[in-house]
Amino acid sequence: MDQSTTEQRHTTEATFSVTGMTCASCAAVIEKVLGRREGVSEATVNLASEKLTVVYDPALIGEADIVSAVKGAGFTAALLAGGEDPRSAQRVEVSSHHATVQLGITGMTCSSCQTVIERSLVAVEGVSSAVVNLAAETATVEYDPAAVSIDELVGAVKDAGYDAVVVPPAEEIQAESARDLQKEAQARHTRRQRNLLIMSASLAVPAFLFTMVPPFMDVIPAVVAMWLANTVGGAWDPHMVMKYMGLVLATPVQFIAGAQFYRGFWHALKRRMGNMDTLIAIGTSAAYFYSVIATFWLVEEPVFFEVAAMLITFVLLGKLLEARAKGRTGDAIKKLMGLAAKTARVVRGGQEIDIPVEQVVAGDIVVVRPGEKIPVDGVVVEGSSSVDESMLTGESIPVEKHTGDTVIGATINKLGSFRFRATKVGKDTALAQIIRLVEDAQGSKAPIQRFADYISSYFVPAVVVIAIITFLVWLFLGPTLFPGALDDLTPFVKALLVGTAVLVIACPCALGLATPTAIMVGTGKGAENGVLIKSGEALETTHKTEAIVFDKTGTLTHGKPVVTEYEAFDDATIDRDGFFRLAAALERSSEHPLAEAIVAHAREAGVELPAVDGFAAVPGHGVEGEVEGRRVVLGNRKLMVREGVDVSPWAARTEQLEGEGKTVMLTAIDGVPAGLIAVADTLKPASREAVERLRAMGIEVFMITGDNRLTAEAIAAQAGIDREHVLAEVLPEHKAEEVAKLQERGLSVAMVGDGINDTPALAQADIGIAMGAGTDVAMETGGIVLMKDDLRDVVTAIELSRATIRRIRWNFVWALGYNSLGIPIAALGFLRPELAGGAMALSSVSVVSSSLLLRRFKPSMRRAEG
After folding, report:
1. Which of 440, 453, 551, 758 is an active site residue?
2. What pTM was computed for the model?
3. Residue 447, class by beta-carbon neighbours within 10 Å (0-12 exposed, 13-18 middle, 19+ buried)?
């Protein structure tokens, strides 16, 4: 057997998703690295789809080896299974055992810190992905427990120069005990920073006063010099005393308060990266060590101890203000956690007892009194009441609850008392699922974040280069170019100050916070309005929506037929109510959905239905039977023809109703035309209003249904949808194809459905919106899940997405604009370094405050208060 035959027999092909690529060079690197591995015969990377296809010999190299080789090249890979498109493929970890853990991180200062931690974690053997959220101060890590432990993950973060604690999943926590470990770690970090700020300010401010403010700089050094002369003896030069005092005051600030910047600088340097710590450490060290030299050797030169001390003080102050503002971006999560009930009253052993909500188990009978909070999810078994569900759904009008109805944990009972059987407790409750979805979304990265990550990766090195060039220009060309700007300083000293100002005014922090802070506030605001956005990507994609496709049944309409009208014929021998009573009695024996609608309408009207004799269903025609001694037939025209009943005088009225999308059933009693009943799946009250608003927003609105075109166009007309936008007679399995056709036209398409039989279409669309989740908020399909069956929430989701992306873009404009203006201003010598440091610190606070403005978002289609 020749070699080629052997290779053909033993090679196999596998496709992997690859993340981390930024350009064609990245793709070439991966292909080259894999091409050199023994057993790999071909490796092809598609940069656009971020896919890697490898043909290899499984006897020589395995999938885990391929993933490891890609990781060694600086990228992340995961095996794809179940399809050629990574968007539809199931993501499968190479290890058969994988887990996800969330770590609370403290000590991050900018987006570069985020990158350092991500790279440090991904470099650990057994870690498949790591995503760090700068705003939430968390890291979400996917790893193989058989290859790496959580302690090793925490150790990797600490080795990178940061602190980490394990955060328990949202579904395993209750109310105020939530995230205790992370909150304690953050509180300790904040206290430490506050103490350092107090120490730093108490030393830096006096140093600034007696070196820069005339009354103090003239008096204090002279007084201290006289005291030293009297105490120690000898002559003391006030100018030198001022230098010594600056050294004494600035040194603790530099090496105690500023130690964190040196540590961060060292850890970043080890990984050949730069971050905010790099800029601060270099800038303050330049000012401090030059001043030391000017104190003991170049005694005629001025010192700038106050520059280093004040700079560190300003940065610490800015970071504390930023932390305080960032804490408010997570208010939505805190509100949701605070909704959980702490205790529940259950029936055990025939007695009512109060127990912690954590001890409630599925099947328990729970007692709820007026004004109490419902502790868990369940079904009412006794009693009735109205329940305020606004805290979870955003719906202000209380919902009536009776036996058999579902109740949601954390909602508030109003006036009545009832008992319910617990069905979902702990991590399975709607509240726990909502918290998990919101936290997952807040911890995810939106595609727009890549822009910030890309710039940040080059930002610090670029700033260092600019600062060096600025220093050299001022040193050698300053006297010539700026003869009046030296401020009586030597070119070297002026160059040093200007170069330091350039270093410290640059702020990668603001750029790194622009996206995650807005995503946190936006997703939280969505949850408050019953709109659950599953990821940052879903939030971003939604704002691009150009066309929206509504499934008809259950989305635009109620999803079940109801009686819209019934009329007695003019020549009938029985009145309107009489004929309907007999028809409804006949239909009570039928199992057809239209029959159920007629019977339900009769019962709601309080109609007493008599008994039926000789009931029979006529397939494809209708039903017949005897009611109160009279022969009644009910069905379509075919049945009337079969019975020899002439209904032609009412054909125009029948066609009119059918043109409105209604199903008309004709009735004859004792062979005489009696009347007609119209049944339809009616439009939801808010559907037309929502469609009109979407069209006003510039979005094309389509309706898709399996109904015939006549019925479909009638419903579409009621909803305000154009006839040419009606996709009728489409089978459920072909709905995805119709969505794909719209995408082929270049439209960004949103699909709105119930998340069950619309699953393929929801997955095919650019963004899938699952309607009316109720307590089942963990629907797998759909990037957005709506708690209620209200199309106005679709409008809210799009408006919120647009508002969030506008805020992110504004944050980018501010962050980039600040740096674009600040660096030239500092380079031209218009800013002292300590003022530049203060501006840098406040720029981050400005971005976070900008994101917090999203908390003012209000849906344009607000419901009338009940």
Report:
1. 551
2. 0.70
3. exposed
